[in-house]
C-alpha cells in the first residue's frame, strides 16, 4: 500500500553532458532547469571550514548544492564539475589542490585570541606535541566544529597546510609551534636556590633532587610543571652558567639507556660536590662506650640524636657521610659499607658498667644459678648513669668471660651481636680480630648465649649452706616420711651458715651435687638438678627421696599385724590396729607406718601410697584390707545352711532374716558385715583362694562384687517361674494386649506347674521386676518387640509403583507378602492394613488430625521418597524435539505410552524423576533441562546476517527492516536471467546462505528485534520489485510498472498512528499488502526462540525478498509519516487483519541419564533446520492460530496473547484475508 513515486526527467542535453550527469543504477530522466546557480569561491564558507582537505571541501560543495545538480552557464552539472570549474582545471585532482590552497589563505581560527597559544609557551609543562595540542584544545570555543589539529593549522602561518606530515625533512604546523615553544620556555625554580638545598639534601639521587625541585615550585605557587620537566630546564641553566657556549643540552630527565646523558645525572654530579654531614663524629664515637648494643638500630639512633635541627637527612645517609662510604649496607659483602665499619668501631669502645669480679662474688650465695637471678644481680650493681638495662650489661659481662677464655691468638677480641652475613662481613673486613657473636636465641648456630655462659660460671662458684653433711644424712633414719616436705624440714634444720637465706627447694639440688661429689670425686658434679620438674633423672627431690627410702624403718616390730579380733576390715579399724602395734616412743602416723609395713611384708622397694584412686594398682590400705578379709571368718557355719527353697519371694528383708537365723549365738557382727564374709567364704569354697574379691554388702556400682547380688542370685536360682519369656509365643498373638499375655501365662501354669501363684507374680519372676504392673508392662514391651511384620519400610520396593495412593500402597504390601510365601506366615491372617500398622508402628490408618502422622502418612511419605523414574533410568535416553522443558515433558509422555510396564501418569513420572535427581544431585529436572539444553544449544555454531552478505551488518539490517536501503528502494531481480551487478551477487549470497548455513547454524540477530515482548515478529510488504517469480504483479513486459507493483494480497491494513485506511481510501495509497510472521515460546531453550533469526532470515530475505521480490513497508514513509517499519516486533506493527506464518523444525536433541545424578543433553550432529508453514489451532500458516496454539501448550501467556490481538485484529476469522469487519470493529473500539 503506497503512493506511486513521481519520475523526474532531465531535459535533453548533449551526449557529453549526459554522460557526466549519469549515475549508477539511475534511470535517465528529465527535469526543469529551475535549479540553483552553481557557487562561486566567495559563496563557499572557507573561513569557517573545519579543514582544508579534499573531503571537507567536497562536503562544503555538497552542502551548497543540497544533493541536486546546479546551473553552470545554462547546463546542469554535478558536484565534480563544480570542483573542476572552481579549481580552474579539467583535471579534478589539480583543481582540488588549487581549491585547498585558496581555502588555506581564507581559513580563520575559531579562537577569539589567536596569540594566546604563543603567550603560553614560557609556562607550558613541556614543548611536546601533546601539550601544545591540549593548549589549542582549551582555546577552541564550544560552537567550533574543529578538533585541536584542525584549529592548530588555522593558527599557524598560511604556508602550513597540515598539522603533521610523514616527511621529517619538511616543516608542518606541529614542528613550527614546537620550535617556537623551545625558544620561549623557562624553568619555574631557580638553579641557585636548588644548589643551596644540595648542602642538606638527604642523598644525591634523582628522587631527592625531584623533591627539592618540587618544593621550590610550590614556593613559587604558579608552576604546574612536573619536577622532571623543570629539572631538564634547570640542568640546561646549570650547564650554561658553567659554559655559556654550551649548545648540547639533555632532553630527558631520566633514561634506562646508559649511553644517554640525562638532566638528572648532571644535577646529581653537581650535588655530590656540595653535600655535607650533619653529625660531629667525635661525639658519636664517645657515646659508643655506654651504648646499649653495637647494632645498626642503636648506632643509627645515636646518629639521629646528634643531627642538627636543619638536617633533612636520614641516619643511614649521615652514617655514610661520617664513614666516607658509598653505601649503608651491601648485602653482597663486596663493597665496604658504613654499617660494618661503625659496628666494628663501636665494639672496640663498648665497656660493661659492672666489674665482672663483683658479679662473681654475688654468685657464691645465690639461691640458684638462674639467668633471672644473675641479671638481677647485675641490675643491682649498675650505676644510675648506665644507659643499658641488666640484660644488655650481662651480655657484655658474658663477653668478658669469653675474652678471658679466648685462645684464638688474634690481635684483638671483640664482642658483637652481629650474626650470619653481618658477622661474615665483619670478619672479612677485619681478619685480625676475633669476634664472639652473642645471641639471646640459643638456637642460633655459631653464636654464644649470654644466659648460658653466666649460668655456667655461677654453677662453678655456688656453694651449699649445710656444713655438717653427715648429721643431715643421719636424720633420714627417724624422718616422718620421705615426702619432699619432710625432707625440706630436715634441710632447714641442718642449714648452719650464718649468711645463708637459701630456701630448701634451692638447697636440695646443691645437696645432690654434694652427694654426687662424694660418690664420684674424680668427676665434675652435675649442676642441672632441679627441685621437682618433669625430668625424673634430674629431679633433686626424687634423688633425696631415694636416699631417704634407703634409711627409713617401720615402728611395728617385724611389721606383723594380728587381724583375729578385728570388728571390720576398714581404714579406721586397721589404723587403730597399727597404732596399737607400734613400739614405745614412735610418733609416726599409722598411715605412714602402714606403708612401711606393707613394704616389708611385700619385699617391694617402692612405697605404696596409703590410699589412691588408681584402680589399676593396689594401695597399702587395700593390701591390708585384703589381708584382713583373708584372715576374718563369718558367724554362719556354711553358705549351704541358707535355705531359699521355701522362701515366698526373693526380697532383701527375707534374705537377711535367713542369714540372722543361721548366725551362732555369740556373734555380734552386723548382718551386712557377716553376709559379705559369708559370700567371700562361698567364693573360696567354689573357686579356691586365688584372686578372691573383696565384697561389699550392697552398692550401685556394677563393677564391685556385691554380696546381696550373690544372695539374691542364689535365691532367684532356687525359686522358679512356671515358664520362661522365650516360651511365651508372642510372635503369633493377635495383639500385645495385657489380657492376651495373661492367657499365655495361664496356659503354661496349667501345663504341669504346681504353683498357684497369680500370673502377675510369675510375670515378676520371669522378668525379674518386683512391681507386678511393671513386670506385665515389660512383657508387653517384649511382645511388641517380638511380634513381627513380614516386611518393613525398607524392604517394600516403591521404586516402580504406579502411584502413592491408598490402593496401590496396600496392594504393594500384599504383593510383597504373597511373594514371600512360607517366609510370611501371617499372610492370610492379618489384613494389609494390620500389616501396615506393624510396618509403620502406627495404630490408625488415617487420622483426622493432619498434625499427627498415621500409617497411611508414613507409607505415603516413604513412597514419595523412594519412587524412581521408569522412562529415564541411568543410561536411558529420550529424543526431544527442540530441547526445552515443555518438549521434554512431551517426550516423557511418548515414552510412557510406548512402555506398557511403565503404567503411570505423566505428572507422577515427572515427579519421580525430579525426586531422584534432587536426591542424587540437589538439582531438579527442569533446572537440569534448562542448563543442559542451554549448553547443547550453545554448542551449535553461530552465524550473523553479515555472513549472508558483508554489507548486512546490524546498522544496514535495522534500516532494511525499516523499509529503507536500496534493497527496498530499487527495482530489479535477484534471480533469473535478467540479473546484473550487485543484485546478482546479493541474490547468490542469500540463496547460498539459505542452502547451507541457515540449516546448520544458530543465527544471531538484529538488536531491535531481540527483546520482542509479544514473542513474535511480523513483516508486512507493500511492493513487488521482482518479475518472473510467479509472485505479485511485477511483470517483465511492464518493467516500469514494478516501481509500484503490488505483492500477492493476504491481509488488510486497518490503520497507522496517523490515519485510518477504510475501503474507500485513495486506491493509489492503499493497495495490496502481504504479511508474514513467526512466533516462539517463552522457555529459555525454546527452539523457536533460539532459531528466531534463522526463521526471520528465511521469511524476510529468502522467502520474500529473494524468492518473491517483496519489499518496502505497506505505506511509503513520504505518504504516511507514522513510525512503523516493514518488519518489527508484533506489538510495534500497525493493526492488520491477519498474517501468514512460518515455523522451524530441526532434528531432535537427545537427553540422556548419564549417571544417577546427571542429565546430559546433546545437540544433533546435523541440526538440519527446516522452514515449514506453522501449525496453529484451527488452521496452519496463520500467525494468530500459531499464537493460540502456543498459548494452549503453556508456552505463551494469556496477557501476551491478548496483547497480540491489538495487531492481528482478525484473529477470530483467520481465513478472511480482507476482513474489513475486523478492521471496523478495531477502529470503533479505539474511537
Question: Which segments are poorly predicted (pLDDT under 50) over 5 or more consecutive residues?
Answer: 1-33
Q: Strand count, sense and closure of the main sheet?
A: 5 strands, mixed
* C-alpha end-to-end distance: 23 Å
Strand element count: 16
How would you describe the shape? flat
Describe, in short, the structure shown:
The protein has 1231 residues and is mainly α. Helix 3 (79-86) crosses helix 4, helix 6 packs across helix 7 (148-155) and helix 36 packs across helix 37 (855-866).
Descriptive account of the structure:
With 1231 residues, this protein is mainly α. The chain has a five-stranded mixed β-sheet with strand order 12-8-10-13-16, sandwiched between helices. It has a three-stranded antiparallel β-sheet with strand order 5-14-15. Strands 1-2 form a two-stranded antiparallel sheet. The chain starts with 14 loop residues before the first helix and ends with a helix. α20 (420-429) links the parallel β3 and β4.
Amino acid at each position: 500500500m503506497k503512493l506511486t513515486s513521481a519520475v523526474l526527467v532531465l531535459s535533453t542535453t548533449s551526449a557529453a553532458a549526459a554522460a557526466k550527469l549519469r549515475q549508477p543504477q539511475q534511470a535517465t530522466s528529465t527535469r526543469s532547469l529551475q535549479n540553483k546557480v552553481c557557487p562561486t569561491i566567495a559563496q563557499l564558507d572557507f573561513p569557517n571550514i573545519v579543514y582544508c582537505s579534499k573531503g571537507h571541501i567536497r562536503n562544503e560543495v555538497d552542502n551548497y548544492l543540497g544533493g541536486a545538480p546546479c546551473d553552470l552557464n545554462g547546463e546542469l552539472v554535478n558536484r565534480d564539475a563544480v570542483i573542476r570549474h572552481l579549481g580552474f582545471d579539467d583535471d579534478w585532482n589539480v583543481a582540488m589542490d588549487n581549491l585547498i590552497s585558496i581555502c588555506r589563505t581564507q581559513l580563520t581560527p575559531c579562537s577569539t585570541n589567536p596569540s594566546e597559544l604563543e603567550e603560553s609557551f614560557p609556562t607550558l609543562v613541556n614543548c611536546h606535541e601533546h601539550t601544545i595540542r591540549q593548549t589549542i584544545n582549551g582555546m577552541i570555543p564550544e560552537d567550533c566544529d574543529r578538533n585541536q589539529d584542525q584549529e592548530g593549522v588555522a593558527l599557524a602561518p598560511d604556508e602550513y597546510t597540515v598539522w603533521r606530515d610523514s616527511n621529517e625533512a619538511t616543516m608542518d604546523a606541529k614542528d613550527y609551534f614546537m620550535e617556537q615553544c623551545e625558544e620561549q620556555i623557562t624553568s619555574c625554580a631557580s638553579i641557585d636556590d636548588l644548589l643551596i638545598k644540595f648542602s642538606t639534601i638527604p642523598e644525591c639521587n634523582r628522587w631527592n633532587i625531584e623533591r627539592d625541585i618540587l618544593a621550590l615550585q610550590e614556593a613559587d605557587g604558579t608552576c604546574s610543571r612536573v619536577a622532571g620537566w623543570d629539572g631538564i630546564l634547570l640542568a640546561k641553566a646549570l650547564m650554561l652558567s658553567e659554559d655559556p657556549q654550551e649548545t648540547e643540552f639533555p632532553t630527558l630527565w631520566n633514561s634506562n639507556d646508559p649511553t644517554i646523558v640525562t638532566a638528572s645525572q648532571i644535577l646529581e654530579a653537581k650535588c655530590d660536590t656540595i653535600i655535607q654531614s650533619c653529625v660531629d663524629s667525635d661525639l658519636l664515637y664517645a657515646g659508643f662506650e655506654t651504648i646499649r648494643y653495637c647494632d645498626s638500630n642503636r648506632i643509627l639512633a645515636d646518629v639521629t640524636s646528634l643531627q642538627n635541627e636543619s638536617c633533612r637527612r636520614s641516619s643511614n645517609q649521615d652514617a655514610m657521610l661520617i664513614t666516607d662510604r658509598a653505601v649503608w649496607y651491601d648485602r653482597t659483602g663486596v663493597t665496604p659499607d658504613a654499617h660494618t665499619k661503625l659496628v666494628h668501631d663501636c665494639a672496640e669502645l663498648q665497656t660493661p658498667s659492672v666489674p665482672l669480679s663483683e658479679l662473681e662474688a654475688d654468685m657464691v650465695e645465690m639461691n640458684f644459678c638462674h639467668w633471672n637471678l644473675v641479671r638481677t644481680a647485675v641490675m643491682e650493681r649498675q650505676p644510675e648513669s648506665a644507659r643499658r638495662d641488666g640484660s644488655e650489661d650481662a651480655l657484655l659481662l658474658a663477653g668478658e668471660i669469653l675474652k678471658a677464655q679466648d685462645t684464638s691468638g688474634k690481635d684483638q677480641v671483640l664482642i658483637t651481636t652481629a650474626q650470619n652475613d653481618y658477622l661474615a662481613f665483619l670478619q672479612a673486613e677485619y681478619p685480625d680480630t676475633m669476634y664472639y657473636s652473642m645471641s639471646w636465641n640459643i638456637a642460633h648456630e655459631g653464636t654464644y648465649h649470654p644466659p648460658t655462659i653466666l649460668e655456667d660460671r655461677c654453677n662453678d662458684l655456688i656453694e651449699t649452706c649445710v656444713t655438717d653433711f653427715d648429721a643431715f644424712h643421719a636424720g633420714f633414719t627417724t624422718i616422718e616420711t620421705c615426702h619432699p616436705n619432710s625432707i625440706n624440714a630436715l634441710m632447714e634444720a641442718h642449714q648452719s651458715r650464718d649468711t645463708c637465706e637459701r630456701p630448701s627447694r634451692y638447697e636440695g639440688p646443691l645437696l645432690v651435687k654434694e652427694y654426687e661429689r662424694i660418690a664420684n670425686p674424680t668427676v665434675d658434679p652435675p649442676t642441672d638438678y632441679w627441685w621437682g620438674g618433669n625430668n625424673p633423672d634430674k629431679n633433686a627431690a626424687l634423688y633425696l627421696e631415694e636416699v631417704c627410702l634407703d634409711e627409713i624403718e617401720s615402728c611395728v616390730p617385724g611389721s606383723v599385724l594380728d587381724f583375729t579380733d578385728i570388728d571390720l576390715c576398714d581404714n579406721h579399724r586397721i589404723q587403730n590396729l597399727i597404732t596399737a602395734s607400734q613400739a614405745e616412743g614412735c610418733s609416726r602416723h599409722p598411715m605412714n607406718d602402714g606403708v612401711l609395713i606393707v613394704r616389708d611384708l611385700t619385699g617391694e622397694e617402692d612405697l605404696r601410697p596409703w590410699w589412691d584412686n588408681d584402680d589399676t594398682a593396689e594401695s597399702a590400705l587395700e593390701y591390708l584390707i585384703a589381708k584382713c578379709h583373708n584372715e576374718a571368718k563369718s558367724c554362719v557355719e556354711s553358705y549351704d545352711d541358707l535355705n531359699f527353697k521355701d522362701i515366698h519371694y526373693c526380697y532383701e528383708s527375707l534374705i537377711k532374716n535367713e542369714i540372722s537365723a543361721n548366725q551362732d549365738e555369740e556373734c555380734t557382727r552386723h548382718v551386712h558385715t557377716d553376709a559379705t564374709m559369708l559370700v567371700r567364704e562361698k567364693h573360696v569354697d567354689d573357686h579356691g583362694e586365688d584372686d578372691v574379691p573383696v565384697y561389699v554388702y550392697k552398692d550401685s556400682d556394677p563393677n564391685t562384687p556385691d554380696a546381696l547380688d550373690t544372695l539374691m542370685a542364689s535365691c532367684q536360682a532356687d525359686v522358679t517361674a512356671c515358664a520362661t519369656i522365650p516360651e511365651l509365643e508372642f510372635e503369633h498373638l493377635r495383639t500385645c494386649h495385657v489380657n492376651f499375655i495373661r492367657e499365655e501365662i495361664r496356659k503354661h501354669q496349667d501345663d504341669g506347674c504346681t504353683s498357684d501363684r497369680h500370673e502377675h507374680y510369675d510375670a515378676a519372676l520371669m522378668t525379674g521386676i518386683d512391681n507386678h504392673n511393671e513386670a506385665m508392662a515389660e512383657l508387653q514391651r517384649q511382645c511388641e518387640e517380638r511380634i513381627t511384620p513380614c516386611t518393613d519400610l525398607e524392604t517394600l520396593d516403591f521404586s516402580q509403583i504406579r502411584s502413592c495412593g491408598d490402593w496401590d500402597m496396600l496392594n504393594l504390601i500384599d504383593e510383597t507378602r504373597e511373594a514371600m510365601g512360607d517366609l510370611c506366615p501371617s499372610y492370610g491372617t492379618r489384613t494389609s492394613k494390620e500389616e501396615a500398622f506393624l510396618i509403620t508402628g502406627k495404630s490408625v490408618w488415617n487420622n483426622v488430625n493432619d498434625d499427627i502422622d498415621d500409617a497411611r502418612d508414613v507409607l505415603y511419605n516413604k513412597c514419595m521418597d523412594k519412587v524412581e523414574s521408569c522412562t529415564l533410568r541411568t543410561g536411558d535416553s529420550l529424543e526431544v524435539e527442540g530441547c526445552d522443558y515443555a518438549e521434554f515433558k512431551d517426550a516423557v509422555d511418548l515414552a510412557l505410552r510406548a512402555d506398557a510396564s511403565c503404567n503411570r501418569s505423566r505428572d507422577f513420572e515427572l515427579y519421580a524423576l525430579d525426586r531422584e535427581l534432587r536426591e542424587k544431585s540437589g538439582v531438579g529436572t527442569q533446572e537440569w533441562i534448562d542448563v543442559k539444553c542451554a549448553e547443547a544449544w550453545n554448542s551449535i555454531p553461530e552465524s550473523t546476517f553479515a555472513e549472508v552478505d558483508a554489507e548486512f551488518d546490524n546498522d544496514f539490517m535495522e534500516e532494511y527492516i525499516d523499509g529503507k536501503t536500496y534493497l527496498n528502494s530499487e527495482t530489479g531481480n535477484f534471480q533469473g536471467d535478467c540479473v546484473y551487478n550487485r543484485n546478482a551477487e546479493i541474490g547468490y549470497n542469500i540463496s547460498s546462505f539459505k542452502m547451507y548455513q541457515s540449516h546448520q547454524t544458530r543465527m544471531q540477530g538484529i538488536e531491535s528485534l531481540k527483546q520482542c515482548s509479544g514473542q513474535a515478529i511480523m513483516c508486512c510488504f507493500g511492493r513487488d520489485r521482482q518479475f518472473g517469480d510467479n509472485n505479485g504483479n511485477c511483470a517483465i513486459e511492464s518493467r516500469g510498472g514494478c516501481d509500484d507493483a503490488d505483492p500477492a494480497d493476504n491481509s488488510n491494513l486497518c490503520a497507522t498512528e496517523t490515519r485510518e485506511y477504510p475501503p474507500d481510501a485513495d486506491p493509489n495509497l492503499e493497495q495490496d499488502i502481504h504479511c508474514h510472521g513467526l512466533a516462539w515460546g517463552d522457555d529459555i531453550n525454546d527452539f523457536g526462540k533460539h532459531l528466531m533469526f534463522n526463521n526471520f532470515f528465511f521469511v524476510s530475505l529468502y522467502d520474500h525478498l529473494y524468492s518473491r521480490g517483496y519489499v518496502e513497508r505497506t505505506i511509503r514513509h513520504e505518504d504516511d509519516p507514522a513510525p512503523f517499519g516493514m518488519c518489527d516486533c508484533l506489538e510495534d506493527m500497525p493493526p492488520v487483519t491477519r498474517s501468514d506464518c512460518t515455523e522451524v523444525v530441526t532434528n531432535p536433541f537427545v537427553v540422556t541419564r548419564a549417571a544417577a545424578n546427571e542429565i546430559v543433553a546433546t545437540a544433533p550432529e546435523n541440526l538440519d533446520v527446516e522452514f515449514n508453514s506453522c501449525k496453529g489451532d484451527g488452521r496452519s500458516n496463520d500467525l494468530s492460530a500459531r499464537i493460540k496454539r502456543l498459548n494452549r501448550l503453556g508456552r505463551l501467556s494469556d496477557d501476551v496473547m491478548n496483547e497480540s490481538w491489538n495487531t492481528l485484529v482478525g484473529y477470530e476469522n483467520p481465513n478472511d484475508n480482507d476482513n474489513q469487519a475486523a478492521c471496523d470493529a478495531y477502529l470503533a473500539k479505539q474511537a
